[in-house]
Write a structure and sequence with these properties.
The protein has 372 residues and is an alpha+beta fold. It contains six helices and twelve strands. It starts with a helix and ends with a strand.
Length: 372
């Protein structure tokens, strides 16, 4: 075949192929996103509003061809929200109908304008595909490219949204974990503080139990009893640190047919302040008053005494109810004394004197019986 014939054959083939090329069609796809577990068509969600606007413009452009059935709309629904394939397809069918309803209402289309298929898996979206005539292939291609770019941008935005939600969820989880740990630490600190307080109270109670504390007690001074002078007292503890005490002594002895005599009575009130944790040591203030009459030789003496001073001492616990009190009082005593002789059984005054004494005025080794 010559070169001229080949050229003619090529031209004839081109003329035959040109109409076929003009009849080729290109697809334009519009994608609408759905919330994973919902079947409602949210127009503002995931860029659906922009995608719907683009689809509306395309439908308006080819509305006549669509209504005539020459250019149908291919609707494909997808779902992953169900527990199985049947549930996914049912969800896809509802979603496809939602999208078609928008087109039917807005563009006055009919159900016959659509070719619908529903699928399980792949995602949660609905696609609307329109086959554009080949003579507008370039415009369709550009529109498809724009749609693809917008779809990619929407997917990117969706991924960013999901990543942001995951980051926010992780942040909230971290804050909750930190709050939980802080609450546990606070509870541990509170428990430790309560235990420390309970231990302190227990120790304090133990110390209080160890302290020699009572409310009422009876007392007997063995030193006075050793001189044949009975001595008894009573103490009222108005608190663990303060006590009010009254001691009394009385004796009356005669011998050698009343030629010798020893008689005495004393009353000694005292206020004490107990010191230290165990309340064993104390200081106090006392007052003493009494009368005496003794005749240990041919001349007897009788009179009264009065004085007072400070006391101090230590109280040693023996048992839960008994203690031994060691005390010493220092102060001043005044004694007005009248001397007398006994002549034929009659006291005859022989003079008087007043004595002043500064120094020890009281001493005691006293048994304390704590009544309660």
């Amino acid at each position: 075949m010559s070169k001229t014939l080949r050229t003619i054959a090529t031209a004839i083939c081109a003329l035959f192929l040109l109409p076929l090329s003009a009849q080729e069609k290109a697809d334009t796809v519009y994608t609408f996103r759905f919330v994973s577990d919902r079947d409602m068509f949210y127009v503002p969600y995931g860029g659906n509003d922009a995608e719907l606007e683009r689809l509306m413009r395309c439908v308006e452009q080819y509305r006549t061809d669509i209504l005539s059935g020459e250019t149908p709309l291919y609707v494909d629904g997808y779902s992953t929200a169900g527990q199985n394939e049947a549930e996914n397809i049912a969800m896809s069918r509802v979603r496809s109908n939602r999208v078609k309803s928008e087109l039917i209402v807005r563009q006055k289309l009919t159900e016959e304008c659509f070719i619908t298929k529903n699928h399980s898996g792949s995602g949660d979206y609905v696609t609307v595909r329109i086959v554009i005539p080949a003579e507008k292939d370039e415009e369709a291609r550009l529109a498809t490219e724009r749609a693809e770019q917008e779809r990619i941008a929407a997917e990117r935005a969706e991924r960013q949204r999901i990543a942001a939600e995951q980051a926010e969820a992780e942040r909230i989880a971290r804050e909750r974990e930190q709050a939980r740990l802080a609450a546990e630490q606070a509870r541990a600190d509170s428990l430790a503080a309560e235990q420390a307080k309970a231990e302190a109270e227990r120790q304090s109670a133990g110390k209080a139990e160890d302290a020699d504390s009572y409310t009422l007690s009876l007392r007997a001074n063995f030193l006075r009893w050793a001189t044949l002078t009975p001595d008894l007292g009573i103490e009222w503890r108005i608190s663990s640190s303060v006590g009010i005490m009254v001691n009394g002594s009385w004796t009356s002895w005669t011998w050698q047919d009343n030629a010798r005599r020893y008689a005495l009575w004393e009353v000694m009130p005292e206020v004490r302040w107990y010191l230290g944790e165990k309340k064993a040591w104390y200081v106090g203030a006392m007052f003493k008053a009494g009368e005496f009459n003794y005749k240990l030789s041919t001349t007897g003496k009788q009179g009264d005494l009065m004085g007072g001073g400070i006391t101090g001492g230590y109280q040693l616990p023996l048992t839960e109810t008994l203690s031994m009190d060691f005390s010493l009082g220092l102060g001043y005593l005044n004694a007005d004394t009248e001397k007398y002789d006994v002549i034929y059984g009659v006291r005859v005054r022989s003079g008087n004197e007043t004595k002043h004494w500064v120094g020890p005025i009281n001493a005691g080794v006293t048994l304390v019986w704590k009544i309660f």
